[in-house]
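re: ur question from earlier - yeah i can do the single chain one, its not a big deal. heres the input i used so u can compare w yours
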Amino acid sequence: MSSFEFTHQTVLLNETVAMILGVKVLSKTQKGVFDGVYVDATFGRGGHSRLLLEYLSKDARLIVFDKDIQAIQVANELARTDKRVTVIHDSFASLNEQLHQLNIAEVDGLMADLGVSSPQLDDGSRGFSFMRDGRVDMRMDTTRGEPVSAWLSYVDVDTLADVLYEYGEERHSRKIARAIKAMENYDSTLALAEVIKQAHPAWQKGKHPATQSFQAMRIFINNELGDVDDFLNQSLTALKVGGRLAVISFHSLEDRRIKRFLNNHSRGRWEDDDKLPIPPQRAKYFCKPWRVAPSDAEVDANPRARSAWLRGAVRTDVACRHF
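and the output i got, formated as tokens:
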């Protein structure tokens, strides 16, 4: 099965596009009327981008980023049929560098969906899934870096346990790390998942015991949290005054980062400032942020949406409002 045969249901589709366009609800009368430059920082299979393009004017521009080479192939197909689209094969952590190369000083909207796409999960050869067999790879960008299998071959038990604990919040990280390091090879995701399952002393009902460990290794090998931090910090200068940021997260490690970033920069006061003798004066870069959860109907139709949160904010120096 080719990568193009895997389907993906875009999470919080209408809500995300409405958020960066600054409207409460999308309507047919709004199609083709929005000017400006927008960025889809995680193109995936293009769900958010395709809907956004319906509402952008013929003179607007959409820059799309992705690390995944299969996603870039889909993006290039879209760009061939729509001259408004520019494709960047890179992490969104290079946002400002890439915008500078395109001679773009600032943008009107930034959106990012931080979830692993269904094609990545459903294609066993990518190594993300503990439900389908494949080599333990887990790289978002298979053209660079090392797969998890290579890393596991030399990492020591203590470092592995630290990764499982920090990025997977796995309470039994030490026991699981020892079991993983006792394996002879890492050629099979199903074999790895089974080892974790056998080593895990307490399973959470309705959740595979390898879930947190697989998440941790994926986040680590792709530097996902570091990239998120870089992207958020660069949004401060990339967004024009009045521009909007919309970010979807799927687990607490990402969501806490996004929440903290938006709260810090909307209050002009950071979390730890109260501990300082003389708190510094900080600029307010965003209006008061808000968040949106998937509807019950969306979760029923797409269970992978159940843990999603959409957070957004408006770049300051304009009248602050949610839409």
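Residues 1-6 have pLDDT under 50 and may be disordered. not sure if urs matches, ping me
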